[in-house]
């Protein structure tokens, strides 16, 4: 194989060119002929079982040369990657056969070039928005975390007739929703089980169930503005038929609970509280730090010059569109239904995603520039510590994470991303 590379600056594109000829291409053509011959269907014969002379009548150069290209594509791509060209792809290269004959094949791997970027100041930035908040754990947050463990051993006791629904009760009921007296799609449920106060239903639904008893009743709610397009902001009446009310009895917050949990390294309730406090602080610190750093990146973006090819933005829009589609489907809607309800077209949605796509690429380029300038290093000790921490968090063996979940290069990249965030957090505000 032979390799060369070129760039078309005015288009913001680059090409890796791989030429396959000689014996290597002869072998690929031979494989292509065999593969194409095996797939040919000739009337009166089973696929690939016709006489050789019959198959050759149907075996055109287009068929077997295309099969030859497919058979060698992956090898050609690996060869191109190994050449360590100065012209590097920013987006995934698109393979394009340019010349194909019995003697040689020329493949072009076409990609967007990494955009030119002139980064602004990324250290010493000051702004009223750049505030490093002190992270604390509230009693409510700690109680919620402890209750998640207590839920493992919850007991349920049926309440007597006449008993009223209270917060924390498990209620089984039928319901049906109406808007302007008309039942609406998806607003009906039978033998639905709900823990009152869990926040599973829309705001106001569970609160209005408190105090009700067995039998029929109704409540009135307003769908939130961030609900599905056909229901958001609308008032609805739900008719209920409460069938069963159970008191949920959680175990006490004591050392006996900890014994039942059997958590590694934790033997007392005080140790459980301390462990959960640390977890909550770590989570809130990470979240607070990420919010701060995102503001820093926004400020860096304002002082930077970044030219991104439209093709790269379009590819990122494709990714965001798929993410958006998944969110729509999570609300039990198809994109066709969503577009019908909102009146939006594919083009409208893609136009709305343009700024987010551009911002995501710019953020990546900025952090990549910081990484290359500051030259962050990752030691073996840091990698091992990361593995051990993950193993402890998930309660599995370190070797399992190494061999089955996260290979070392992936862990290394994760540590570098953390170092970039820590650097931007520490050197600004």
Explain what this protein looks like in three dimensions.
It catalyses: [protein]-peptidylproline (omega=180) = [protein]-peptidylproline (omega=0). It holds the Pfam family Trigger_C. Its EC number is 5.2.1.8. GO terms for molecular function: peptidyl-prolyl cis-trans isomerase activity. Residues 168-225 form the PPIase FKBP-type domain. With 429 residues, the chain is α+β, with helices and mostly antiparallel strands. The chain folds into 3 domains: 2-114, Alpha-Beta Plaits, CATH 3.30.70; 155-249, Chitinase A, domain 3 (Roll); 259-426, Trigger factor, domain 2 (Orthogonal Bundle). Helices cover 48% and strands 20% of the residues. The chain is built from 13 helices and 11 strands. Strands 6, 7, 8, 9 and 10 form a 5-stranded antiparallel sheet that branches. Strands 1-2-4-3 form a 4-stranded antiparallel sheet. Strand 1 (2-8) and strand 2 (13-21) form a beta hairpin. The protein starts with a strand and ends with a helix. The mean pLDDT is 91.
Topology of this protein?
Layout: E1 2-8, E2 13-21, H1 22-39, H2 52-58, H3 61-81, E3 94-100, E4 104-112, E5 117-118, H4 139-150, E6 155-158, E7 170-179, E8 182-195, H5 205-209, E9 215-222, E10 235-249, H6 255-261, H7 269-302, E11 305-306, H8 310-330, H9 335-342, H10 346-374, H11 380-394, H12 398-405, H13 408-426
Protein name: Trigger factor
GO molecular function: peptidyl-prolyl cis-trans isomerase activity
Family: Belongs to the FKBP-type PPIase family. Tig subfamily.
